[in-house]
Design a protein that fits this description.
Largest sheet: none
Radius of gyration: 26 Å
Shape: flat
Oligomer: single chain
Number of strands: 0
Protein name: ArgG
Order of helices and strands: HHHHHHH
Helix content: 55-70%
Number of domains: 1
Length: 195
């Protein structure tokens, strides 16, 4: 049997695992309480009650689990909470990534302002903000939103640990068909025997 013939019959299906988003990833891209307070003060935005957001989401999830406890087994409760916490963490991470992009755009626009030779980056007419100022304000708004979602995610992660009794970890899908099972190998041999 030729080697090219053999290689076409033994192709393995490769499935890439999708890594879950962790709370640590959220913490790396979303502002913490100190940075959120600095943003609020610098841009004249409302100062968030970070601890209040976190505590509210923790209490809400605990209360929800208490309400569902009679109808769900421990494993069903864990799966349900896993999905809820995962959605909060994923939402905060997405907001953090968007915030990071907005900061980069604001920094780029502000750096262009320093170049005296570019007329298009000059301040707008009297009474209007420059494009760079609008980008900085937009980034500040996104930073406050990312921080709020981070605190909500931290709250539900804490609630998960309180309810389930173990630390929350993101769900990671198992590899599909990591190797052929015996029944699949038998089916392949039977098909090969048929010609």
């Amino acid at each position: 049997m030729s080697s090219s013939n053999r290689s076409t019959k033994t192709k393995a299906r490769v499935v890439q695992l999708r890594k879950g988003t962790t709370l640590e990833m959220v913490r790396l891209c979303c502002p913490d309480a100190n940075q959120a307070a600095l943003i609020s003060e610098s841009f004249g935005l409302a100062v968030l009650d970070s601890d209040g957001i976190r505590d509210f989401h923790e209490r809400t999830l605990i209360d929800s689990a208490d309400t569902l406890s009679d109808g769900l087994s421990d494993k069903a409760m864990q799966i349900h909470l896993q999905r809820i916490v995962g959605s909060h963490v994923g939402s905060a991470y997405g907001a953090g990534q968007f915030y990071s992009k907005a900061v980069t755009e604001a920094k780029d626009a502000t750096a262009r302002l320093a170049n005296d030779m570019r007329d298009e980056d000059r301040d707008g007419p009297v009474g209007f903000d420059s494009a760079a100022q609008r980008k900085r304000e937009f980034a500040a708004d996104m930073g406050i939103q990312a921080h709020a979602l981070r605190m909500a995610a931290e709250g539900v992660v804490a609630a998960y640990e309180h309810i389930v009794g173990e630390s929350w970890k993101p769900y990671e899908r198992q590899a599909e068909n990591p190797g052929q099972t015996v029944s699949r190998q038998a089916a392949d041999l039977q098909i090969a025997a048929l010609g």
